[in-house]
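Usage example:
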Amino acid sequence: MQITNKKAEKVKIAYIGGGSRGWARGLMSDLAAESRMCGKVYLYDIDYSAAKDNEKIGNMYKELPDCASKWDYIAVKTREEALKDADFVVISILPGTFDQMETDVHVPEEYGIYQSVGDSVGPGGAVRALRTIPMYVEIANDIKKYCPDAWVINYTNPMTVCTRTLYEVFPEIKAFGCCHEVFATQEFIANVYNSINGTAIDRYDISVNIFGVNHFTWVDAAHYNNIDLMPMMKKYAEENKDGKAFTTLNWMNKNFATNQTVKLDLYRRYGILAAAGDRHLAEFCPGAWYLKDPDTVAKYNFALTSVKWRKEDLKERLRKARAIISGEEPLKIEKTGEEGVNQMVALTGIAPYVTNVNIPNIGQIENLPKGAVVETNAYFSGDSVRPVCAGRIPDDVNHLVIRHVYNQERIVKSGVKGDYEGVFRAFINDPNVVIGLDKARELFDKMLEKTKDYLPFYEKYKAEEKSFI
Amino acid sequence: MQITNKKAEKVKIAYIGGGSRGWARGLMSDLAAESRMCGKVYLYDIDYSAAKDNEKIGNMYKELPDCASKWDYIAVKTREEALKDADFVVISILPGTFDQMETDVHVPEEYGIYQSVGDSVGPGGAVRALRTIPMYVEIANDIKKYCPDAWVINYTNPMTVCTRTLYEVFPEIKAFGCCHEVFATQEFIANVYNSINGTAIDRYDISVNIFGVNHFTWVDAAHYNNIDLMPMMKKYAEENKDGKAFTTLNWMNKNFATNQTVKLDLYRRYGILAAAGDRHLAEFCPGAWYLKDPDTVAKYNFALTSVKWRKEDLKERLRKARAIISGEEPLKIEKTGEEGVNQMVALTGIAPYVTNVNIPNIGQIENLPKGAVVETNAYFSGDSVRPVCAGRIPDDVNHLVIRHVYNQERIVKSGVKGDYEGVFRAFINDPNVVIGLDKARELFDKMLEKTKDYLPFYEKYKAEEKSFI
Amino acid sequence: MQITNKKAEKVKIAYIGGGSRGWARGLMSDLAAESRMCGKVYLYDIDYSAAKDNEKIGNMYKELPDCASKWDYIAVKTREEALKDADFVVISILPGTFDQMETDVHVPEEYGIYQSVGDSVGPGGAVRALRTIPMYVEIANDIKKYCPDAWVINYTNPMTVCTRTLYEVFPEIKAFGCCHEVFATQEFIANVYNSINGTAIDRYDISVNIFGVNHFTWVDAAHYNNIDLMPMMKKYAEENKDGKAFTTLNWMNKNFATNQTVKLDLYRRYGILAAAGDRHLAEFCPGAWYLKDPDTVAKYNFALTSVKWRKEDLKERLRKARAIISGEEPLKIEKTGEEGVNQMVALTGIAPYVTNVNIPNIGQIENLPKGAVVETNAYFSGDSVRPVCAGRIPDDVNHLVIRHVYNQERIVKSGVKGDYEGVFRAFINDPNVVIGLDKARELFDKMLEKTKDYLPFYEKYKAEEKSFI
Amino acid sequence: MQITNKKAEKVKIAYIGGGSRGWARGLMSDLAAESRMCGKVYLYDIDYSAAKDNEKIGNMYKELPDCASKWDYIAVKTREEALKDADFVVISILPGTFDQMETDVHVPEEYGIYQSVGDSVGPGGAVRALRTIPMYVEIANDIKKYCPDAWVINYTNPMTVCTRTLYEVFPEIKAFGCCHEVFATQEFIANVYNSINGTAIDRYDISVNIFGVNHFTWVDAAHYNNIDLMPMMKKYAEENKDGKAFTTLNWMNKNFATNQTVKLDLYRRYGILAAAGDRHLAEFCPGAWYLKDPDTVAKYNFALTSVKWRKEDLKERLRKARAIISGEEPLKIEKTGEEGVNQMVALTGIAPYVTNVNIPNIGQIENLPKGAVVETNAYFSGDSVRPVCAGRIPDDVNHLVIRHVYNQERIVKSGVKGDYEGVFRAFINDPNVVIGLDKARELFDKMLEKTKDYLPFYEKYKAEEKSFI
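Running the assembly step on the lines above writes:
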């Protein structure tokens, strides 16, 4: 990379999961729109042909009249080629296929455990973590070998576990996890403000202080200019059971409406605002609260996302990719609202700024353990990301949050060593696993069996004699 | 108090709850057997006639030929008379009557929540705490006023909440909570050892390192002489599903057999030994583990103690008291195995020693919050109780324990202020409350209604408009 | 205050010490140059005529053709008038007169203790603190009463003690201390870079991570764009004994050259860069290192600033003020390079940014005590200042720093209570007080005697019987 | 080792430094007097003939009529023979000879730095540490290899550094450091009590709470029975400049009177009682306080122990040994008052008890760093030493103490790696090194040169180019 006159050139980005039909496309569009940075993107994917498709699409951006920066896209067959001397590494992979995700989400339903997403915590999150961790161990080792000074941006879920695994394997890594859920909450606040004041401010006008873990972050201070917006949100929560009128469509997931009913219930109960979509929030709370059964879910106005839908959606995305490549459908540069490209620009030192991010706790949250990956704002500047001190999470909220921190730390530490029995201890400590020990074991074993092709230590686990029930 | 030649004389003990038919009788017997200390015991009880009965019985000990120390017993009508310039204060009260305890234990069963004791945590523990806290606030204030330098021994449950409330109200208080559950665990270890080695050692021969909170303490090191007994216990746990053969009858609660099945299951799972009876342990774990329903309880070989039994037992104890007073039954000096009297002797400086105790954490447990009341060993010497450093609780165990620490801290802080809504947040965070938010609210309100005569802030709570479900 | 279209209007600033001939003039000029903010500045000073002079000068700015924002200046006779409903409070006072400062700086010389500034630590800093603390107690109480929501910017030394006192008296205050020493270090780094690379970057191009306490801050990371500049500085330090060629004139103190000799010596010794001028740094180190005697000072290329010079300088500034008022000399708008006005703009929410600041430690520095006032970067945004996590100070550096943290905490806590004996314990723990206990007592007493008019507890101190030597 | 009926037999003790004429003789006498333990003592010394002499004397004890336990003494030529499967290891060595100690103590005097002992901190302590650390690295490695489960008792100074080095090299080691200074303080308190009350209590009747680092420990609570003795000591300190009347002769060092003048001065100043002899205390305080020059030392009634005296004393001890072996002088069993043998008995589990000890901080002192070796009481029981929580050291005292903790940690960490430049940073941070940086370097280099035969990294240090002055 070379920086001259506030422009970074010859930037090398390695994209792990470069065949992705969602995040990769968004990044391509954002890069094409960003004039302060230019270079090459190396696309690596275990499905090489998918990477090749993205190479084609990526290079098509250069022809668009409003392209601000002409990036070269190169699909490669090895991780080494992608990573070698990269300036930035983007990781956005699907651990396994949607068949495995089907197991994660729907097998627990046989035991009365409902999950609205199934990719972060709960039975689904734990088993997805078990598939993901060995992949991240390999990636971390390769980054250490081929580009130890690169900045690494993780988009894969379970976000906390993935990011934390990178640090567990290579503690000096410069990595962070990036998620858009907080942006939607800023937008919700802006929309409430607009409805009251007849204004048209947007999410960028709302500054927030946030703390927690990914998908279970909380806002205890929000401002528009110097106006404290928390009293407004408190009043709103007290007077409204839901926020349907201000329903925000999630970035990159435009089919998942969130009606804020869970968020507002939590606000009334705990006095601060949870900052992820309701589908995520519900999974971090005790199972009986919002996910007891489909009726409870309906009562709280959110939905259980079926994997069937995801499979259909993927087909549509594949069709669309082919249509773009063949020229049947036009390619457009549209800003996604994601912050990834802004973060890269900030890291070149050209335009420092503050946004939210997932990194190890060095004190930014006073009452969560040091070293655990947490989400707060951070200051991005030349070659550095430094968290902004977010203070103490209010006790009662923290008691909900810290339980997941403990579980996630256990999953990472045991997962990296292949100690699935340790992971089971986190599994039965999850607030959504409200079944007996024998049933929990049966469920865990069934889920592992179905996903065993991705579990390097599966045989060892089966061979261990288990003396407990 | 006056100490001469290793004997403490003119000791004044104030007994709050001095009409007690259980603990008071035990203490009288232990005092009669202890030659190094003598003086007066002031018995205060809201039921003055009960205290008067104990006065009679207490003074009868002086006539026994094997009485080592002739204590005077005086029933008094005010707390002030009892406390004024006391050297020691013993608190052992029943917060409310067995009718209230019936509510604590059995109303939750209507919601599918089973409790084996119902006096420490869970719905019963929380509501019992709400009754107890205002009484302890008064007692603490009176101690501050009438005998600020006295040593205060608490026997009442919920042990942690009661002891912690004393410190919340009067931070300079010299108080500790005293419980026999660990002794039974030492006895269990001794019995296992004896069965293997053909020896006859007893609980005093077993030294243990303990940490946790009352009724959910754990042993990570046990020795007989310098022999590490943990490998023996590990082997035992792996080879035995229960410890029926070594079943120990609890001190002072001789009807509650504990078969160690829960304890051994936890050992296999977590690698260290829980140190309370199974009935207590079960209540601190997620509800679905050991208390899902009566069948599960049966499977794990423990019992749900019904309050009906307690009522019958009380009748028998009353009958026995009358029989002793009338001379129909003989009075005997029998050592109870409790440590209260030994602790008092140690505090005079005559015979320092180490035993387990509940006091605020000043570092004795590294990974529990400072200030919370925890249980470890402590060194008792002249006018001081200093905890022995017990180290770090293993992570997975600590995650089970700390959740109760958070809840208990919340209950004390909210309970003292009369903020029952705050207590409800602890209530729904209890691992045994695995019901929906609306059902939990219904249960909480029903329990409060039934115990409202003991709740000074009940009307305030009812009057608050609650905007959540 | 009212914010419309990214402009804050009707801003009320209270200036305590509004008769100041240095800082007040700089602020006026910076305000006149700032188009995003406008309003009124209330000048309060114990010397009302000095405030009145500044009122005249302040209002003259409105007539200048390049005035971007026409502020009204009003001299007031009471602190209440100035503070009532203020949006911002600026505090910049001289505690006592230069006669007292003469005592602070020069009496210790009679005991062989040399000070290069005498306003932060050392005997001078301690005694100056004793004068300042009662003034800050009053100011903090008035802010609590008249404008509890105002943002308070402190410029007075001892910076740490003054800012910390505000929080000691009114813990909810929104105050921070502001100092330019770090800027000069950024400029030094930029100058070294320019000399090597033939560029012309300036201090704003250099981003730094800083930690420590005011006047004893340290830089462990510096970047231009994404280039790590620490290797360059290391090489420079190894090859150069001083930095005379890049000597920077301090903001607002253009007569105090700093040749960086101390800074480079510390760099070679500790491996990171101290970030204040050498005159300040020397005073925080053990006295024998750089301040043993005038020869040692000369060897390290810095100077002992005599108070005589300050008195002369003040005369010149008074003359200049009169000349401006009379029209003999022209008034000019010149940016000072100070950050105060930018910070205010950021706090309105219009233009968030990151700069260094002195506020209580909530975790921004891992290895300094919580609650102590420390200096790091912070993120200024709408109505909030949140520190950026600066990490751990390297151990050996921290051992030098933390000693002052302890002393400053002691001085504040004892100073607020009027416990001068406690202050004496900090006095004899200062690294520059390398004299015997009896001599130290003699010096302390002599200094207090000379400044007693400013010491509300002086008589109490004299009356105490002191049983030690 | 084998324990039957409260008696430990076949105990193997390895004595490293087994040719010692002081500590070894005391241990032999204490072992002969202790009926609960018996076995063999292996004496290893680099001076084999000295060990052989002790073997002879040791075996002579068996013939004495009052010998309670007949131990076999065996001098061995390798550390391996001594350590192999030992139950206990005692380390009491002289690092170098008295010639080196002469350098430690007297060379600094050429620079105006006076030391009263020179073996713990200050220039002498640092350089002695540099000699000792490599020896302790070897010993720790051998213990790890030959007897990892043995309990290791260290008597060598610098106590803290030696003990800490063992843990740095072999973190699982079961080691503690043992010192008698606190006992003398208990005796002083007992003597004051006796003089007032006409009693005859002794040090065993005084229980104390202690905290700090070895030779700079402090007592904040002392009791006889349950009587708080601190008010008595406060009054004594206020009314008396010295404690000559109660002067206590140190155990094993019967020539070093301590008149308590420093101790009482510190008491008046800081409000709690320092618990080591004045000669030690003085060295931990800023140099100008008590060690400015010989006149100051005289004023405070203590003495600079010259190494010349130590050499004379050694001659006398050698003579005495020969006289005993030849039968000219009788051998007697006299209890030394040291606790080593009692500690061993406690570790067998036969007789648990509490005494003071030096071990890594796991929370026993709240405000000293975790991991540093600190001195507090500890509970000795079967195969375990667990510190008793001593609480927080009062702030002003802690600021004096923690400085040494930092320096000692630096010395161990740098010393183990052979980074003498790091040790120099501790050297110039010592409160008694009140000389300029160039003089300090000159002194450090001169001291190292004179002791270089014991410094494995000396050549490396000399070869490093040092760019600072």
